[in-house]
Amino acid sequence: MKKILTAVLSFVLITVSIISVSALDNGSVTRVNDYADLLSDSQETKLREKLDEISEKNQCDVVILTVDELDGKSSQAYADDFYDENGFGFGANYDGILLLVSMGQRDWAISTCGYGITAFTDAGMDYMVDRFKPDLSDGDYYKAFDTYADLCDDFLVQAKTGKPYDVGNLPKTPLGLHWILIALVVGVIIAVIVIGVMINDLKSVRPNNRAADYQKEGSFVLNTQKDMFLYRTVSK
Fold it and tell me: What is the pTM of this model?
């Protein structure tokens, strides 16, 4: 009896897995599922091709999901369930990561599975969110998702070195344009001050109207003194 139950259970699990994988292959779900219609057709196609390339290269699914409502679930539970129920993931551990954006709740969530948990640590995901969240808030969804894709690729490549991005080992944040401009302005000001001081030090010769300033103190000694009448002029 136990053998029969085990066989039936195995058959059910295999059938569910085949159905899930078939659904992914047939296009009912892809690595870009824009149910909230945030992207244009061309943006969606371009983004899907990019995620397919990243996923296949790293053997770890990178997925994006947008929805209008969460059907009463939390954003995290919805993301986890969608990943599990739609055949995502590479290998026996279903390696992958999924980003969910819910427009109705103005919320987001990230679900990781298998090797995705190793590659995307809590600190690493916080870093990623800080990079793409401003564009989400501004409504530039394609740019936000494109940044997410690039970061996923970077994190997966880094994880293969055996040192995933984590606390104390996060990518260096690039300086913003405004900081570069501020640095240039400060540099110019400092350069002007330094050059001004150098030019001032080179001015060793200056005009002077007082001969006493050229006299060495204590060098003048008067030895003889007398009055001499030279001439007289009288006009009438």
Answer: 0.64
91 vs 96: CA distance, rounded Å: 10
**Cβ proximity of 121 and 166 under 8 Å:** yes
Distance of CA 230 to the CA centre of its chain: 94
Closest CA relative to residue 146, chosen from 204, 75, 62? 62
Tokens of 53: 């390339």
* pLDDT tens track for 8-19: 455 444 443 443
Q: Which H/E stretch holds residue 63?
A: strand 61-67
Fill in the amino acid letter for 6. T
**Closest C-alpha to 129, from 106, 113, 145:** 145
Q: In what order do the strands lie in the sheet containing 96-102?
A: 32-34, 61-67, 96-102, 107-113
Q: Look up tokens 């939390």; give the residue.
A: 74
Of 14-23, 51-60, 138-147, which gets the smallest average pLDDT? 14-23
What type of residue sits at position 23? A
**How do residues 25-36 score in pLDDT, each as one tens digit?**
444 689 999 999
Long-range contacts of 40-47 (CB under 8 A, 24+ apart): 40/142, 43/142, 47/142, 47/145, 47/146, 47/149
Query: In the prediction, which pLDDT does 171 show?
Result: 83
Chain centroid, CA 51 distance in Å: 19
pLDDT per residue as tens digits for the range 159-194: 999 999 998 878 876 545 554 667 677 777 887 787
Instruction: State CA 128 to chain mean position distance.
Output: 7
Side chain identity at residue 121, one-letter code = T
